[in-house]
Amino acid sequence: MATSASTDGMMLHGPDIRTNVIEAIGRTPLVRLNAVTHGLRTPVAAKLEMMNPGGSVKDRIGIRMIEEAERKGWLKPGGTIVEPTSGNTGVGLAMAAAVRGYKCIFVMPDKVAPEKMALLRAYGAEVVVTPTAVERDSPESYYSVADRLTREVPAAFQPNQYFNPMNPKTHYETTGPEIWEQTGGAITHFVAGVGTGGTISGTARYLKERNPEIRVIGADPEGSIYTQPDNMHTYKVEGVGEDFWPGTIDPSLIDQWIKVGDRESFLMARKMTREEGILVGGSCGMAVWAALEAAREIDDPAALVVVLLPDSGRGYLSKIYNDDWMRENGFLSRLGQPIRVGAVLAERRGETPKVVAIGRDQTVAEAIELLREHDISQLPVLRDSTYTVIENGGRIPIEVQSVVGSLQERGLLDALFRKPDVLAAKVSTIMEAPFPLVDANEEVERVAPMLASGSPAVLVQRGGLLVGVVTRADVLEYVAHHKATAE
208 catalytic, yes or no? Predict the structure, then answer.
């Protein structure tokens, strides 16, 4: 019999009934990835930390930090927990606080998804929102605000996951052993996103003690101090990366770093949801992207990559899983599938050559004749050549460094009316700045702002050679044609 009621009806007994929700933390499943690893020989398994009762890996450290504070007398009955968090640690602490009877105040950066703020409030916590784009030591940063509240609120305690040794210790005692046991010791590579560094450091220490040959790979967002100390900048992915080195990270345990952009992180998260059936957040997408890069490099069916997925995608429905938000932030094409500039150039209709250019020492009259002959409205200007035409069926190599300027109908007309004898002048006397240079593999959506903001055309390069000129009309024609075909 699974359960039985006591005589007073107040207690339940059974072989697998937890005393409270805290005891349900951990022992999360390890699942092999199949669709996103198509074509890779190295197997990849994912540790599903969103299966913790609070929905993330941070459930593990929330209760451990509280218990340690209780043992040391830092947190007493009726006290208040104050913590700077991007959401997940807050939930772990709020869940534990609800069981233990504490109040909570969480300080969050404004880039955090509104679902996460609402979730913390659902646990009864107070949420204070601060700006993201400020230095760590600014009085407005979420670290500084949390420190101030800890000083001002009576009986307040800040667990401070960034410097609390219970953070990595928890993963040394739980996450590492679970992965080792679940893989039967077959794990060869461990991949995890790095925020406070507690998860990767604690897990890595345990795994390397069992097998020093295991390689540990840290996934880091572009703009974080870990991989870009000299070029830190803001990024959209939440809960990972830092602008300082926390005390909870041990970089000596990390064998390799893989830097991942916001776009790759978010698109991989969506891909995981749609192809693997695992609803994950942006930091998970970042970790999986890094794991697949590592698996591709390893290329060994005898290896085993384990990637830790820290949280669910339910906290990102208004962002990562909202097509409008993704488009507004440049992560999803407004045109359906991404369109490459090279494709626009390749499918350009009519008899217009890929490139018509003119040398800077040729005359304005010759330039006007080229515009008329080829029915175009702009010309790249080259340093040395006489006029050059790259036909659709062939190519005369033009190095991009040889482009020194541009001519446009508007500028020619203005020069002609101001100075009628300009026809005999050299092109160099009236040329304007060169058109923007883009790679043939660049997405049209990223190029469109250049065309919309003033430049009538962009120069297209491949391998350092000029392969074409794409205009606003070319893009409009391509999009209109493909939309009509699709319909």
Answer: no
Looking up residue 242, the CATH number of its domain turns out to be 3.40.50.1100
In the beta sheet, which residues pair with residue 432?
406
> Bigger pLDDT: 408 or 212?
212
What domain count does the chain have? 3
Which amino acid is located at 173 in the chain?
A: E
> What is residue 438's three-state secondary structure?
strand
Residues 266 and 345 in one domain: no
Interatomic CA distance for residues 89 and 83, integer angstroms: 8
pLDDT of residue 3: 38
For 231, half-sphere exposure in the C-beta direction (CA atoms, 13 angstrom radius) is 6
**What burial class does residue 224 get, using C-beta atoms within 10 Å of its C-beta: 0-12 exposed, 13-18 middle, 19+ buried?**
buried
Q: Which of 47, 58, 116, 236 is catalytic?
A: 58
Q: Please tell me the predicted confidence (pLDDT) of residue 337.
A: 64
Q: How far apart are CA 15 and CA 4, in angstroms?
A: 11
Position 5 scores a pLDDT of 39
pLDDT, tens only, 73-98: 999 999 999 999 878 999 999 999 99
Same domain, 193 and 290: yes
Q: What is the dihedral of CA 223, 127, 155, 151, to 10 degrees?
A: 50
What is the percent of the chain where pLDDT is above 70?
92
CA separation for the pair 285, 166 (Å, rounded): 26
List, as own/partner pairs, every contact residues 473-476 make where C-beta atoms lie below 8 angstroms and the sequence separation is at least 24, other chains included: 474/344, 474/345, 474/348, 475/344, 475/444, 475/447, 475/448, 475/451
Task: Sort 117 into a burial class: Cβ within 10 Å, 0-12 / 13-18 / 19+.
Answer: buried
- Residue 153 sits in the same domain as residue 75: yes
Does the global pTM surpass 0.90?
A: no
Domain span at residue 356?
A: 341-486
Rounded to whole angstroms, the Cα distance separating 343 from 462 reads 13
| Tens-digit pLDDT profile for residues 328-363 | 887 886 655 667 888 888 877 767 788 889 999 999
